[in-house]
Design a protein that fits this description.
about 325 residues, alpha/beta, TIM Barrel, 2 domains, binds flavin mononucleotide
């Protein structure tokens, strides 16, 4: 049960395949999640474009949004056929657009429907189907409600729950505020683990340092890290070193060197430099030269003809080079 102890959270407009390729260079063993893809978009849209990923990204999980069991199971099958390692259902996104479509966090009010969705997906795929949820929504935030929600879904055989340790307010707060304003209540997630020791309970929300991880690890089965992994991606190297006993993680300049090969290939296939470099601005966070790196890339990567020389120059400005 204790594999994939650490993961990078699904984040719209952030964890696309370029970002995941980059993060994988830093952390070979951390589980990566796609951005949420709605069942609607997948069924009616360009499946190849939405689902394609690079083989090096494994282990990688596909996050789906939706509430129609038939559509979701169709999408789960597609995800499995594409080679994803896990299908995750989003029951945590509080965006009004998402709620209007009856998926995301508003589904915490409908455990039976979530259970039907999970059961339908599970019956059609052999990879794990997991659920990412909040600790509550609006006034429905008692521990009894959360317990009943988990119980109902666990009865389908679902074994892994990733729980963002905040409730969500479905009206009145923006998605961003919903990641900051409701207080983090880690003790609630830890209680879930106590009450359901047979389940894999992954804690999410506000984890930024190894000290944070150390504080919670004894009480849960894993951690999912969102914003800290995006703004300070090399934090994942610390996780890799500490928890996967991997002393040979790439240095930052080595990551850049490897990425340049990937970028050269992507540019030849029509990808714009900026579509990749926007994910790597935080690589040198906390290091001398971090500001130069960020500034140089921000100023130059969006130019029409920009190529890998922008990154090479930015790396020179950090004063750090590979041998
Ligand atoms: C820009 C952004 C986009 C997000 N998109 C998603 C999403 O697509 N699906 C989802 O379940 N959560 C999404 N989230 C929430 C994160 O997965 C995570 O639950 C939240 O940021 C709390 O973790 P953190 O404090 O480590 O960032 C998003 C968060 C951010 C910052």
């Amino acid at each position: 049960m204790r594999n994939y102890l650490f993961s990078v959270a699904p984040m719209m407009d952030c964890t696309d395949k370029h970002d995941r390729y980059f993060l994988r260079l830093i952390a070979p063993d951390v589980l990566l999640y796609t951005e949420m893809i709605t069942a609607q978009a997948l069924i009616y849209g360009d499946k190849n474009k939405l689902l394609a990923f690079n083989e090096t990204e494994h282990p990688v999980a596909l996050q789906l949004g939706g509430s129609d069991p038939v559509m979701l199971s169709e999408c789960a099958k597609m995800g499995e056929a594409f080679g994803y390692d896990e299908i995750n259902l989003n029951v945590g996104c509080p965006s009004p657009r998402v709620s209007a479509g009856r998926f995301g966090a508003c589904l915490m009010r409908e455990p039976k429907l979530v259970a039907d969705c999970v059961a339908a997906m599970q019956s059609d795929v052999s990879i794990p189907v997991t659920v990412k949820c909040r600790i509550g929504v609006d006034d429905q935030d008692s521990y009894e409600n959360l317990h009943a929600f988990i119980q109902c879904i666990a009865e389908t055989g679902c074994q892994t729950f990733i729980i963002h340790a905040r409730k969500a307010w479905l009206s009145g707060l923006s998605p961003k505020q919903n990641r900051e304003v409701p207080p983090l209540r880690y003790e609630v997630v830890k209680q879930v683990k106590k009450d359901f020791p047979q389940l894999k309970i992954v804690l999410n929300g506000g984890i930024k340092t190894i000290a944070d991880i150390e504080a919670h690890l004894p009480d849960v089965d894993g951690m999912m890290i969102g914003r800290a992994a995006y703004t300070n991606p090399y934090f994942l190297a610390e996780i890799q070193r500490n928890y996967f006993n991997n002393k040979d993680v790439l240095t930052r300049p080595e990551v850049v060197d490897q990425l340049i090969l990937y970028i050269s290939y992507q540019l030849k296939n029509g990808v714009k430099l900026n579509n990749i470099t926007r994910h790597i601005l935080g690589l040198f966070q906390g290091q001398w030269g971090a500001a130069s790196w960020r500034r140089y890339i921000s100023q130059h990567a969006h130019h029409q003809s920009a190529g890998v020389e922008v990154i090479e120059r930015a790396l020179q400005l950090t004063g750090l080079q590979t041998l």
